Amino acid sequence: EELGSAVSRLGTAQIDSQLVDNKPILGLFQHVDQADPTKNKLFATVNDSSNTNADIWDLDGSPAISLADDTASLKTRFLNYAGDTLRLNGTDAPKAYNSSTWITTGGVFDLGNMPTGYKYCAEFLDRIYLWGKTSTPYTLAYSGVLTAGAVSWTSGNGTVEIEPDDNGGEGTGLGKVPGYLLIFKRRAMSRWNFSSAFPEELVRIGAYSQESIVMGGGLCAFYSDSNDDAKGFYITNGGRPQPISHDTSRPIKKWVDAISSSATVAGWATDRVFAWSVGDLTVDGTSYTNVVLRYNRILNQWSVRSYPNEFKVFAHYVASGVHSNVGGDDDGNVWQLDKAATYLD
Asked: Measured between alpha carbons, how far is 159 from 138 in angstroms, rounded to an integer?
């Protein structure tokens, strides 16, 4: 009796070669130069073989180190804005790539005046926002508006305190939807539209990490383990987040319940699909490795995938005018996802 026919799915294709053996990718991002696409760069951050430092590699056919000797083992976040790409890790001084070299002062981000120690960055309404500084955990910092090709941290800039309540936990990331910047803590979410202050918590549900916050189709989705009842995936248009994985009648809930409290949860999104890598899971007594949970918001449908390697970070990637998604794994490799005419892995 045939219960269902086997269906192949598009596979993964490695981009360049392995960077460093047995080291997880700590950050992944494509620098995009709108004026000259030949200057686009796909950057990947990974520790060196001795875990002494972290290096940012340029994956451009023959991978090479582009920026050397950042602090080891720190997650690296990037922001591409008005021609420059900002690099933050919460410890090292901010730097930016300007399609030619890495700079530490000036540029689009006014680097010499930019506050230091922040982990997360976002652009909203022509300003740069910074969040997640350990020594000032409630402070959201913002720049002046983009003027003459640069923002300013000495004019038009400021800060706002986001619900100085320790019950919300540490800052975990930033997201945005049309009309709002979303500010996440581990157990709380706030929103900000600049003209009206909304620093108070919208809901006592927070995001697990910056990497678990994804945006697509004018929506923001994220993974939360704020408490036992809240554990799962949520989606928001700026209002109260709606759970999309909590229905006990749907099989996906047992997969979500199996996610470890120490898992690396990282996601990516398109206009209709949200997906998260959640590590190894044991469901109904069977173990599955390197699981990715995918949600199609149009069909309101979940699916489960398993890969040869565990993805730690994801990024959008444009090559030859075609947009796709790439993932950095736990073994120093970067992979293009769902590549056309590729059915392996």
From this structure: 10
